[in-house]
Each structure stands twice: as C-alpha cells, then as structure tokens.
C-alpha cells in the first residue's frame, strides 16, 4: 500500500533578525515528508530549531525559503504546548469544547466526541472539575483531548511532557501511544528524551544546530503495540544507543 503524504517540507529555511539586528538562520534546507498515521519525533540540542519547525508547519510562524505543502484539503492542525494553557475558570469539559466553539463546529456529533475524548484520556470523573483541581499530568491530558476535539489533520506536540516526573511521563507515553493507535492520527512530537522518542515514534528526526538542519531520519521498527517493557528489548536499546551517538557528534 502506498503511503499518503500529509505534509511535505522542501528545502525550507528560516532566518530571524535579532534585537541587535543580527541575522540568525534557525533552519536551513529542511526536508521532511510526513505520511498519514506517522508518529514523528524531532530531537536535537537546544536551539536547533525544533519548535520553529513545528510552529512553521502549524502556521504559527512564516518561513523564508523553500516550500510547505499540505496534501489534505483542510490545514486543520492541533497544537499542544509544553505548559498546557487551560482556561482556569472553565471546567475540563468546557476547556475541551472550546476549540469547537471558536471554529463554530459545535454539533451533536462533535459534542458526543468530546465525551469520548475525555474518557479516552481517563478523565471522565473530572469532567466538571476546574484545572486547579487537577495534577500537572491531568492538565496535559486535558490539553491533548482539547487539541483532538476538532479532529486535526496533524497533531503537533512541543515537549508536552517535559515538565512532568518520570512516572507520570511513562503513564502519559503509554496513553499517547494508545491514543495514536486508536485515533489513527498523524503526530509530530518534540522531545529531549531519546527513550521517549524511540518508544513513541515510527520515525525519529535528528536535528543539528546552527543553522538547524536534519542530520538523519531513523525509522523505528518496533510494531504498533508497544508496552513499557519494550524499552528493555535489544532492538530498543540499539536504537537509543545509536541516537545517543548521533547527538554526541
Ligand atoms: N521569535 C524569534 N526571534 C528571534 N529568534 C528566534 C525566535 N524564535 C526562535 N529563535 C531562535 O531560533 C533558534 C531556534 O529556536 P527554537 O526555539 O526553534 O529551538 P529549539 O530546538 O526548540 O530549542 P529548545 O530545545 O531549547 O526548545 C534559536 O537560536 C532561537 O534563539
Ligand atoms: Mg523548543
């Protein structure tokens, strides 16, 4: 079966002009093809342009050179940030419904899906709670449900679990892997954590800094059904050691 391309990035470049009027090339000749159903992680040293690339693909930032093509008709992208920003005065349910209100997509069907999503992230008991009543991990889960509520073509996640402790992170990694499998979504994910990248992804994109370029794209062949035990497997350890080596040089 031929893979369906969702996003094609060709020779993409971005230069920022700093406060002191200096040119800073954040991205140079970046090429990346995102296929439907891919789970792609971007890893690389701080400042190599991971967030910039994600922001450009999601339309939050412009690019200077090269091209960005969406093959799907609607460029409907979801974004989950490192610090989930939820409306403090809205309940979990109201936060998840909010994008549908903004996009005027509130219908019987989409609202039914909101309850499914809240269940999918395991928060049905907290449907009517306020964000201040939730833990950090639970807030991230609300943020994930919210970004899925309007059925985005590509879900972009910029270090969504960066601020969480290792155990919560493990739980959310498992959950995200399940959500990805169940929803069939295409996900672009940024992380600093090599093991997290290997565990979640179908492909890991390694970036190098100044100017940010793609060093290598490593396909991860660990099957779709992954549990945390896979991290002890020979293949997994080989992948992470290889990536660690690439990042050191
Ligand atoms: N709005 C901006 N104006 C000027 N420079 C910027 C802007 N956004 C990013 N940069 C610069 O572009 C480069 C890439 O930044 P970016 O945030 O994409 O890196 P990153 O790989 O996400 O890093 P981190 O891992 O620390 O989050 C950095 O050198 C940064 O200073
Ligand atoms: Mg970043």
UniProtKB/TrEMBL annotation:
PROSITE patterns: ABC_TRANSPORTER_1 (PS00211), ABC_TRANSPORTER_2 (PS50893). SUPFAM superfamilies: P-loop containing nucleoside triphosphate hydrolases. GO terms for molecular function: ATP binding; ATP hydrolysis activity. Pfam families: ABC_tran (PF00005). Keywords: ATP-binding, Nucleotide-binding, Transport. Residues 7-230 form the ABC transporter domain. This is ABC transporter domain-containing protein. It comes from Enterococcus phoeniculicola ATCC BAA-412. The lineage of its organism: Bacteria, Bacillati, Bacillota, Bacilli, Lactobacillales.
């Amino acid at each position: 079966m031929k893979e369906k391309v969702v996003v094609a990035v060709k020779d993409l470049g971005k230069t920022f002009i700093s406060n002191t009027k200096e040119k800073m090339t954040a991205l140079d000749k970046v090429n990346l093809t995102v296929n439907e159903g891919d789970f792609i992680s971007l890893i690389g040293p701080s400042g190599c342009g991971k967030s910039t690339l994600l922001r450009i693909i999601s339309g939050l930032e412009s690019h200077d050179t090269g091209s960005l093509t969406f093959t799907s008709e609607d460029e409907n992208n979801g974004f989950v940030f490192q610090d989930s920003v939820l409306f403090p005065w809205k309940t979990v349910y109201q936060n998840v419904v909010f994008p549908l209100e903004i996009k005027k997509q509130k219908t019987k069907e989409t609202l039914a899906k909101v309850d499914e999503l809240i269940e999918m992230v395991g928060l049905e008991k907290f449907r009517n709670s306020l964000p201040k009543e939730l833990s950090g991990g639970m807030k991230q889960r609300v943020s994930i449900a919210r970004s899925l509520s309007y059925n985005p073509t590509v879900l972009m996640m910029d270090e969504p679990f960066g601020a969480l402790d290792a155990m919560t992170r493990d739980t959310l990694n498992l959950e995200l892997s399940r959500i990805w499998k169940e929803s069939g979504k295409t996900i672009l994910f940024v992380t600093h954590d090599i093991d997290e990248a290997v565990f979640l992804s179908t492909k890991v994109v390694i970036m190098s800094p100044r100017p940010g370029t793609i060093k290598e794209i490593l396909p991860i062949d660990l099957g779709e059904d992954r549990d945390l035990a896979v991290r002890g497997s020979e293949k997994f350890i080989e992948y992470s050691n290889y990536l660690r080596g690439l990042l050191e040089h």
